[in-house]
């Protein structure tokens, strides 16, 4: 039986932060399903770092269908959770079904990978208190306000939580997450 991984996303999720883990985990032999507020075609964005800008820029990215809605997710059916960044976490964190899902993974000690603005979701669910996490550097005050210790790294591992700052960290982030994942739930 194929081991399933849940990736949560919404419109304005960062394209690279959705597709890199989706493809990398699929390559490892896991079945990755994408959940969103509704089962529809999602519109992702591309965040880039350009000279002369004080922050990242945003451009339209790829589209991709969500496999199922948050309300239809049985988190017990999944071995791990991936929380990409982008702007999506700003509004996804308010979704009660997503909070239910995230609470399950943290409560069960299952592997969770979060990157960039993804920690906004686990923070809103009250799950970062006492933890160590990376995030997009501008989120350091949010991480601290959630009771966590902010770490500026490409692969911060705190038990089964693996976090990173943004898509340039993908190699270290996914390498560390796959190591944690293989111990908890080897692919079939």
Automatic annotation (TrEMBL):
Pfam families tied to this protein: DJ-1_PfpI
Domain DJ-1/PfpI span(s) in chain numbering: 4-179
SUPFAM superfamilies xrefs: Class I glutamine amidotransferase-like
Organism domain of life: Bacteria
NCBIfam families assigned to the protein according to its UniProt record, in alphabetical order: PfpI (TIGR01382)
Family indicated by similarity: Belongs to the peptidase C56 family.
Protein name: DJ-1/PfpI family protein
């Amino acid at each position: 039986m194929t081991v399933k991984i849940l990736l949560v996303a919404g419109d304005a999720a960062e394209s690279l932060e959705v597709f890199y883990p989706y493809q990398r985990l699929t390559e490892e032999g896991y079945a990755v399903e994408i959940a969103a507020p509704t089962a529809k075609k999602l519109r992702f964005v591309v965040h880039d770092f350009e000279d002369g800008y004080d922050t990242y820029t945003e451009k339209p990215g790829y589209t991709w269908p969500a496999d199922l809605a948050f309300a239809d997710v049985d988190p017990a059916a999944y071995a791990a959770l991936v929380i990409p960044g982008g702007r999506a976490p700003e509004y996804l964190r308010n979704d009660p079904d997503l909070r239910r899902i995230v609470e399950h993974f943290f409560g069960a000690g299952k592997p969770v990978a979060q990157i960039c603005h993804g920690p906004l979701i686990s923070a809103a669910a009250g799950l970062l208190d006492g933890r160590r996490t990376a995030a997009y550097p501008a989120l350091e005050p949010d991480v601290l306000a959630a009771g966590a210790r902010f770490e500026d790294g490409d692969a911060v591992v705190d038990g089964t939580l693996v976090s990173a700052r943004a898509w340039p960290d993908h190699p270290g982030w996914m390498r560390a997450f796959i190591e944690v994942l293989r111990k908890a739930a080897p692919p079939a």
